[in-house]
Amino acid sequence: MTTISLNGLDVAAQEGATLLETASFYGVEIPTLCYNEGLSPYGACRLCLVEIGPPHRSRLVSSCTYPVREGLQVRTHSSKVMQTRKLLIELYLATCPSSKVLQDLASSHAVTRVRFKQKHDDCILCGLCIRMCEEQMQAKAIGFVGRGAERRIGSAFNKKSEECKLCGGCMYICPVCQARCQGPEEKSPICNACLNLSPPCLDSFDDAMCSLTPCAACEIGKVAEE
Amino acid sequence: METNELKVLAGENPLFAIKEIVQRHNAYLGSAIPILQDIQNTFGYVSPEMMMRVSDFSGIPVSELYSIVTFYAQFRLEPIGENLIQVCHGTACHLAGAEKITEALQFETKAPAGGTSPDRKFTVEKVACIGCCSLAPVMNLNEDTHGRLTPDKVKKVIKARLKAAEAEAESKGGSKDA
Amino acid sequence: MRNGNPTVKVGLATCAIAAGAAKVYETVKESLKDTDITLERAGCMGMCYSEPNIEVIEPDGVKYFYGNLTPEDAAVIVEEHVKKGNPVQELLILGEGCQTEDASFLSKQHRILLKNCGHIDPEDIESYMAVGGYEGIRKALTTMTPDEVIEEIKLSGLRGRGGAGFPTGMKWMFTRQAEGEQKYIVCNADEGDPGAFMDRSILEGDTHSVLEGMLIAGYAIGASIGYVYIRAEYPLAIRRLKLGIAQARERGFLGKNVMGSTFSFDINIREGAGAFVCGEETALLMSIEGKRGMPRFRPPFPAQKGLFGYPTSINNVETFGNVPRILHQGASAYNSLGTEKSKGTKVFALAGKIKRGGLVEIPMGTTINEIVFAVGGGISTGKPFKAVQTGGPSGGCIPANLGDTPMDYESLQKIGAIMGSGGLLVMDEETCMVDVAKYFLDFTKEESCGKCTFCRAGMNQMHKILERICDGEGREEDIAILDDLAHKIKMGSLCGLGQTAPNPVLTTIRYFRNEYDAHVKEKYCPAKKCKALIEYSIDPEACTGCTLCAKQCPTDAISGQRKEPFVIDDSKCVRCGLCINSCRFEAIKVTSEPRVTV
Fold first, then answer.
1. In tens digits, what is the pLDDT along chain C, a chain of 598 residues?
2. How many domains does chain A have?
3. CB C523 within 8 A of CB C472
4. Residue B46 belongs to what domain range?
5. What's the pTM value of the predicted model, to 2 decimals?
6. ipTM for this model
7. Is there a single domain that holds both residue B126 and residue B41?
8. Of B83, C50, C132, C476, which one has the greatest count of Cβ atoms within 10 A?
9. Which structural domains are found in chain C, ordered by start?
10. Closest Cα in chain B, distance from residue C13 (Å)
11. Is the Cβ pair C461, A117 closer than 8 Å?
12. Which helix or strand (DSSP H or E) is residue C57 part of?
C-alpha cells in the first residue's frame, strides 16, 4: 500500500492505482468525460485535472493517468483546479452547447457565461468510441482523422467501414450525444435553467436536479411554450 | 530496389510495386510511416486504393493508415500538378512578407490556397520553415530553392519555369518525331 | 611564389545552395580541372548572410574567406588568387590584411560545437578523424566504465539543448538504471521551430560528431540501437547521415563490437512526415512506432518505458554534438564556460531584421545586446531595434529594453521566454507584435495534435480573438480573456506543446500592451502591418504618373492619367503591397491613424 495526502487527509492507496481511482474509492468525486473503467485511460478531456505537489511548486495533472506515489500531495478541488475546470467547461460549451452532460456540468460548477465564439458540433473528441471499437469490439472501424483544429472522428475515407459490426457501442458510450439537451437553442450557449429556477435548484437541491432526465427546467420551458 | 526502378515498376504494375514496398519494410516494428512514405515517393501521392492494398499486404487496418495519412502534413491524398511550389512560412519568412509571396504566386499561377491550378501546371503549398532564414522569404520550386523573393521576382521565376517546361516538351516531342 | 598548392573550400549547406553555391562550386571545379589543387566541400560556416562562400587556405595555413559571390566572382578568385597567389581584395571578407566588419561576427563567438562546421568535409570520415573525431568514443571504450562516462557528462553540466534544459547526465543515469532487456537511444532531429536551423547545419556540416555522440550515449546507458528522427524537409542532412552511417560501419565504428570492444551499436534513420508536435519526445516515439504522433502522458517517462516499451534516452542533435567534445577534452574544460547553472556554449540561429544573420555559438550568459549588435552587426533596416523572439512558437518576445538579459535557461525563464532550441529572431519597428503573436498561434493551432481540449479548443479560441483584434474588431475585454485562457492552457495541457504555446501571447501582452491597446481601443496598427487597420495612398507630390503601379495592381484599384498623380480607390484595395514594390519614387504611403472610438 502507498500513502498519499488526499485533500489534506493521509489515505492508503493501492499501488499502481491512479489518482482518480483512489479518489473515487474514498468518495471524492472528480468529473470526467473521456474516462471509462473498462477502457484504457486517455487523458485528453482534462476535466479530471487535480493539483499535485507542495503549494508553491504545484502543477496540474490528469488524475485518470497519474499513478499514486508515496507521500504525494493531491488536491482535487483547490481554487486552481476549480478555476481551470470552469474555463474548460466554458470551452466545451462553446463547442457542443446542445449536450445535456455539458450543460449539467456547467450548472454544477456555476459556469454562468460563455465568452467564446460558439459552434454547434456534436463531438468533443474524447475518443471513448474509438477505444470502445478497438478495445472491446476488436474492430478498429473508426479512428481519428486529421489534426489540430481539423481533428475529427471517422472511418477510413469517410465511407462505411467493412470492419464495423453495427454493435452501437460507440453511440452507447458517447458522453455528448447520449442525452440531448432540449433546452437552449441558438439564443444562448448556456442553459443554466436549474440555476434560474425559483427557488434556485442549486440552493435547494444542490445539483440533484441535474441528474434528472429529462431536465425539469426544459420540461417547464416546454409547458410554458404550449 | 531503388526509387527509380520502383517508379518504372509502378508504371507497369502498380500492385507489384506496392507489394514490393510493403515487403521491404514489413520486417520491422512501426513500419507504417516508412511504407506510406515510399508509396508517396513512388506514386507521387497516396490514394485510398493504395492504402487498401497496403492494408491487404501488411495487415495494418485501413482506418489506422488513413488516420496516419491525415495526421502528417507530408502525405497527399491527391496527385499534384506538374510543378510543386512550397512557400516557406517560417517566422523569418513571415516577417519578410511570405504572405505577399503566396498571394503573388496564387495570382500568377491561378492556383487556389494549398491547391493545384486548373491547368494542373502548379501546386502551391505552404510549408513550415525550410531553414534558409537568412534568405527570407524563400520558396522551393520542385528541387530548387529560391531566396530573397519579391512579388516581382516570383513572376519571373514562374515565367522562366513555364518557358523551360515548354522547351522540354518541344525537345521531347521533337525527338519522338525523329 | 608559394611553396605547394593552396586548398579551396566551397560551403555547400542547404542555405548556401539556395543562395547559388552549387553554381559557384561547378565554376571552381571546372577552372581547377587541370591542376593539382584540392577542392573540398564544406558545411555551413554559419555566415549565412554572406553566402555563397569560398575559402582559400594557403600552404602555410593562412586563410582567406570570400563572400557574396557569383560564379563570375568565383572564376576571378580562382584565376587571380588560387592560381597566381594574389588575393582579390574587393571580394574578401576575412583574411590577412583585410579590415571588414565581418571579422567581429566570428571574433565575438566561442566556437566549440561549430568548430568543424565549414572546415571539414562532412562527407568524408577521414576529415572528421583528422581533427580528433571518434577519439571520444575510443577513450570511453578503452579507459572508462559506462558509469564514469555518465559521471563525466554530469560533471560537465551539459543540459538538453532541445529547449527544456534537463541535465543530460541525469537523463542517461535514469535510463541506465531502468530495467529492460533492450534499451534505445533516440536523436531528436525534428527541428520544427520556424526560424531555427542549428540542427540542420550541424548535421550537414559535422555529421559524424552527432553519430559519435550517440555511440557514447549508447555505451553509457547500455543501448544497442539508436534512431535518428529527422525532418523529411532536410534532404541534404538525411543524405549525409546515411553516408556517415555507412562510412562508420565500414570502419567498424558502428555495428557489432565497436572498435573491437564487446560493445555493439547501430543507428537507423527515421524520416519525419511533417508534424511539429513530433519534436515533443513522447510524440516522436509514437511516430517512430509508426503511429499518429500524439503525445503520451507521463509518467511513465521514456527513461522507464519509451520506444516500443523499453527504456529510451532522447536527446537533441546539439546535445549529442557536445558529447564527444566533453569526453575528448574533459568535463572541466567544458564547464569553465557559461554561467553557474547553464554550462558551455549554445548555438543560435540568428535571423530576421539583422545585418549578419547566421549561426552563432556563444558561451551561455552572453547578453542579447551583445549578440544582436556585436555579433550580428545590428538591425539591417537601420530602424530601431524593437524585440527579439527566442524559442520559436514556445518562446517569447523580449523587448529591446531587456537587452541586457543574459542568455541562459534561468534568466530567460524569469522574463517569460524560454531558451528553446535556439531560434533567435530580431525584430525592428516595422514588426507588429500582435501580428507576431497571431502568427505563432496560427502555427501552433495547426500543429497541435488536437488530443487535449485545452490545446485544441483553447488555442483555437485565442487565435480567433487575435484575428478579431487584428481586424479592428477587438473588444475591451479581449485582452483579459486572452490572458485568462493563456494561463490555463499552460497549466492544463497534456504535453509541452500546449504548455508553452501561449508564451508568445503572454510575453507580447506583458511587454507590448500598448500595441494591443492601440488595436483594440484606438483601432490602429502602430507598425502598419495589420491590413484592416491601414490605408494605402499616393502622395501627389511624389507621384510622376508613370503608370507602373496601376499595371501591377491585381484589383485595378489604382487609376489616373499618365503623367498626372494617380489615386488609390480604398474600397478596391486589398493591401497586397505590389504597388509599393513597383514604385520607384516612394510615392505610395501606408498610414494607420488612431481612431477614437466612443
1. 577 889 999 988 888 888 889 899 999 999 998 888 989 888 888 888 888 999 999 988 888 999 999 999 999 999 999 998 889 988 888 887 666 778 888 888 999 899 999 889 999 999 999 999 999 999 999 999 999 999 999 999 999 998 888 999 999 999 999 999 999 999 999 998 888 889 999 999 999 999 999 999 999 999 999 999 999 888 889 999 999 999 999 999 999 999 999 999 999 999 999 899 999 999 999 999 999 999 999 999 999 999 999 999 999 999 999 999 999 999 999 999 999 999 999 999 999 999 999 999 999 999 999 999 999 999 999 999 999 999 889 999 999 999 999 999 999 999 998 888 888 999 999 999 999 999 999 999 999 999 999 999 999 999 999 999 999 999 999 999 999 999 999 999 999 999 999 999 999 999 999 999 999 999 999 999 999 999 999 999 999 999 999 988 888 999 999 999 999 999 999 888 888 888 999 999 999 989 865 4
2. 3
3. yes
4. 3-71
5. 0.91
6. 0.89
7. no
8. C50
9. 7-107 (3.40.30.10), 132-335 (3.40.50.11540), 345-428 (3.10.20.600), 433-521 (1.20.1440.230), 534-591 (3.30.70.20)
10. 10
11. yes
12. strand C54-57
Instruction: For residues A19 and A83, state if they share a domain.
Output: yes
Same domain for A105 and A208, yes or no, is no
B147–C19 CB contact, under 8 Å: yes
Rounded-to-integer distance, Cα C54 and Cα B176, Å: 43
CB atoms within 10 A of CB A168: 8
Boundaries of domain holding A215: 198-226
d(CA B23, CA B31): 10
In DSSP terms, which residues pair with C314 in a beta bridge?
C186
Q: What is the CATH number of the domain that holds A64?
A: 3.10.20.740
Establish if B114 belongs to a structural domain.
yes
Any residues with CB less than 8 A from the CB of C338 and at least 6 apart, and which? C157, C344, C345, C363, C364, C365, C408
From B144's Cα to the closest Cα of chain C, the distance in A is 7
Is residue B132 included in any domain, yes or no? yes
Tell me, yes or no, whether A93 lies in a domain.
yes
Asked whether residue A106 falls in the same domain as residue A135, the answer is no
Q: Which chains touch A (3 or more CB pairs under 8 A)?
A: B, C
A-B contacts at Cβ under 8 angstroms = 31
Distance from CA of A65 to the nearest CA of C (A): 7
Nearest to A183 by CA among A141, A214, A162: A214
Please return the burial class of B177, using the count of CB atoms within 10 Å of its CB with bins 0-12, 13-18 and 19+: exposed
Does residue A123 sit within a domain?
no
